[in-house]
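Propose amino acids for all 283 sites.
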């Protein structure tokens, strides 16, 4: 495996950045997770825009222009001979002192890793996920906005640990108001009476690029979409539930906190949306 670091490629073993980089010292950086389908990076521009917005919000200067960054993503795929895979791109704040001062940091590092990755085992797409609600809540937007895809994912990591302890592959996270936000690494949707419903950005979520793609597909299919606050009750009472993410695509959820959702099987509308999503990835 060849890893891109700020303009050069290194073998996996030698792909290293400084221990004085604030990315390591403080989780001070931004990242993206993308998918390549048949040699094309899905929604690359949208990922770059989100990366740029995250970096702007944190006042991190992305050291290379957008077009160069996009070219570096493709170069990393090519060097590794990957046509279908997952790409992790990060931009760190760069090397600084042991203090917090961001203005003393210089030389932000761009890291691009391309790999084959299965976010969830294939059988879970057939059976659907059984998930639980974590006691760790999603970051309050009044703190660091969850719209910033920062390298500081500690509360999501803690929530995921809770899910693992409960034997679940994913975990639901609420916001500080007790409303449904999203899962540790995926957005959530329900289908009730033929309508699609997902929490709005104000609920404190990452605005997923897969989430937006699914909203666009649904609208195109004539399915009404509501971006409104959601409670766990809405999920318990839903006909169908599924999660979205670049890694996961669309994965059905059949149980939350011991309550069976719908008839306990992946729903027909979820399958239809997944089929349409797959078509989208082929364009
Ligand atoms: N929410 C969180 C917290 C995430 O980390 C991710 C990405 N893994 C998503 C949602 C899904 O976003 P996207 O569809 O852009 O991958």
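Proposal:
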């Amino acid at each position: 495996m060849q890893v891109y670091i700020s303009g050069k490629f290194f073998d996996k073993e030698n792909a290293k950045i400084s221990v004085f980089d604030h990315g390591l010292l403080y989780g001070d950086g931004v990242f993206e997770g993308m998918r390549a389908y048949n040699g094309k990076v899905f929604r690359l521009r949208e990922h770059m825009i989100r990366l740029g917005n995250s970096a702007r919000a944190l006042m991190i200067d992305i050291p290379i222009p957008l077009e160069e960054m996009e070219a570096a993503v493709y170069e990393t795929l090519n060097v590794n001979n990957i046509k279908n895979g997952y790409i992790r791109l990060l931009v760190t704040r760069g090397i600084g002192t042991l203090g917090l001062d961001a203005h003393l940091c210089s030389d932000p590092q761009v890291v691009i890793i391309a790999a084959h990755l299965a976010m969830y085992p294939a059988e879970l797409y057939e059976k659907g996920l059984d998930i639980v609600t974590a006691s760790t809540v999603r970051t309050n937007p009044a703190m660091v906005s969850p719209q910033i895809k920062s390298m500081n994912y500690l509360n999501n990591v803690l929530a995921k640990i809770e899910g693992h302890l409960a034997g679940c592959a994913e975990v639901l996270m609420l916001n500080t108001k007790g409303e449904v936000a999203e899962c540790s690494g995926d957005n959530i949707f329900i289908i009730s009476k033929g309508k699609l419903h997902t929490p709005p950005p104000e609920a404190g979520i990452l605005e997923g690029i897969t989430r937006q793609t699914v909203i666009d597909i649904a609208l195109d299919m004539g399915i009404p979409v509501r971006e409104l606050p959601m409670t766990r009750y809405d999920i318990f009472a839903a006909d169908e539930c599924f999660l979205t993410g670049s890694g996961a695509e669309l994965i059905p959820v059949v149980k939350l906190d011991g309550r069976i959702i719908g008839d306990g099987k992946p729903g027909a509308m979820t399958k239809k949306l997944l089929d349409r999503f797959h078509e989208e990835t082929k364009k």
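The helical segments are 22-26, 44-57, 66-79, 122-127, 154-165, 209-220, 232-236, 268-282. The chain has two domains: 2-115, 122-281.
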